[in-house]
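Worked example 3. Consider a protein that binds RRO.
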Amino acid sequence: MIEFCGIELAHPVINASGCFDVLAARERFGEQLTRQFPFAAYVSKTVTLAPRAGNPPPRLWESPAGMINSIGLPNPGIERYLDEHLPVYAGLGVPLITNVMGSSAGEFAALIETLADRAEVSAVELNVSCPNVATGLDIGADPRGLRLLLEELRPLTQKPLIVKLTPNTADVGACASAAEDGGADAVSLINTLRAMALAPGGGGPWLGGRTGGLSGPAIRAVALAQVASVAERVAIPIIGMGGVGSGADAAALLEVGARLVAVGTENFRDPAAGSRIAAELAGVFAENAD
Ligand code: RRO
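Given these inputs, the predicted complex is written out as structure tokens:
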């Protein structure tokens, strides 16, 4: 058992927000998914107060050892999330972490207050780091703004607050430390790195949102460096992610200071990645114990 912000988890491997669609997986894999859910906790895709359609297509670009997404936060809004998604997520048999994003402190506050008395939700992850929307982004790269935001949100719920940090900043350690000072219970990193691809044959940017976020093995070394530097700055637990595709990758993030590891882009290549990586990680631990 792993303890994380007072929550008991069977192992240290969870999914990265937006990278494992339970509703789609249930259609494909049926009840087996809920009998043997691959992750120790489920992190849902970012939800906002009002519904959002997302960015215009194209939304994906495959790059060497990775991909660039410009999804733009499509989601049904918090009301439909509670009515339609929450009952399914609550039946997965693992703790649920709901990821939320607001474009102002007031929107974040409304989301947190709405979730505060929902017993199905074990923790809330604050997305201050999506690279694909015009608003809500800068606060994650501004240590003072981040501390003030957390100070405002902290009294609104007893649930653990996890701050999803942006890698698109010169000093991620300062942002993590500010989140901790403001009352965050944990930090998670890294979100995607801002990136761009041009349309083959000309015509400007390929992605409908112009720029997007780079993920996958291409960012693994960046994630390792940023998690290591955050671990030197904060005492609160860290969820490490970025290019994790194997138990060895997960073990590396744990070695530099992460408490949990999240699997993101690898889920799109291998829908069974969660259980495979958790098993590989257990193998790494067993080898090290010998
Ligand atoms: O939806 C997205 O475009 C998105 C989000 Br919310 C995020 O946090 N990170 C990302 O790479 N894409």
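Take a moment to read the result before moving on. The radius of gyration is 18 Å. The first strand starts at residue 2 and ends at 4.
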